Amino acid sequence: MKLEFFDSTLRDGSQSQGISFSVTDKINIVKVLDEFGIDYIEAGNPGSNPKDLMFFEEIKSVKLKHSKLCSFGSTCRNTVKVEQDNNIINLLKSGTPVVAIFGKSWDLHVTEILKISLEDNLRIVSETISYLKSKGKEVIFDAEHFFDGYKNNSEYAIKVLQAAYESGADCLCLCDTNGGTMPFDIEEITRKVCDRFSGVRISIHCHNDTGCAVANSLAAVRAGAVQIQGTFIGYGERCGNADLSTILPNLILKCGYSSHINLENLYNVSRVVAEISNIRIPYNRPYIGKSAFAHKGGMHVDGVIKLPKSFEHIDPSQVGNRRKFLMSEVSGKSTVLPKLQELVPSLKKNSPETEMIINELKNQEFLGYQYEAADASFDLFVKKQLKIWKPHFNIIFFKTSDDYPAPSGSLRSSAVIEIEVDGQRTVSGAVGNGPVNALDNALRKALMVFYPEVRTIELTDFKVRVIDQSSTTAARVRVLIDSSDGESVWTTIGVSNDVIEASFIALVDSFEYKLSRKES
Question: Is residue 380 over pLDDT 70?
Answer without folding.
Answer: yes
